[in-house]
Amino acid sequence: MNFNMSSDSDNYYGENRITTALLLAAGTGSRLFPLTQHSPKCLTLVNDKSILERLINNLKSKGFKRLVIVTGHEKDCIMDYLGKKTGDISIEYVHSPLYKTTNNIYSLWMARHIIKEPFVLFESDLVLNSTLLDDMVYPDRMAVALMQPWLNGTTVTLDNANKVTQFQKGTTELYSETRYKTVNIYSFSLLAWQAIIKRLNKYIEAGSVNCYYETVFSEMVDNKSLTFDSVSFDHQPWYEIDNMKDLAKAELLFPRELNEASRLENALAS
Questions:
Q1: What CATH superfamily is the domain 17-138+183-269?
Q2: What's the mean pLDDT in 100-121?
């Protein structure tokens, strides 16, 4: 099944191409201790480059102009590393002071006032090839990959038009329908974002700050107040890094880039 739409998407969407990104980077990354004991998860090195540097390169290659980062654990490390601008990308920060006691639903809610335009949402534990964003820079899309035995977490089902029809909590139980793993990259139109903010407000006002934002997306997909076109990441280089085993696998998928001197040395050695 092929549900990428890169062939004519530039012409079809025209000026709707998204140039703002939101990165949620507030968590402590405790499953990567001791690497994250004094450093945020997004600065973890995958071979020669940090997760954050790789994301910045992804965004630059796709023409992004604005990056908003929700910080928490070791926020100064991120701010010192990036500053207020990198290349053509302006950078703004929102600090979540309750990052130790809240989940990503709260981090997303923290961005409600600073973002007033369509954007692409990223988590701070993803590494991927830039080409995977070709179809994610347009509104109301969701990155997915066919569920595999070694994957875990939230899954979704799709209809024949490759639209997301339902979210499910991660499970190891057998299931009959074809499920897809969420890659945790979403794009939103301004209209969708405004509707999401209203639902987020209700959760936060009720004190539900420890759940995942997928809970909100799931409810809104169920009542048809939110729709996503799926974008396939199947058989493409990406990885979600939650623990040390994930990091080791990601380093195999994204090997160290050799400089010219190293290439020459290796060539002479062989």
A1: Spore Coat Polysaccharide Biosynthesis Protein SpsA; Chain A (3.90.550.10)
A2: 97
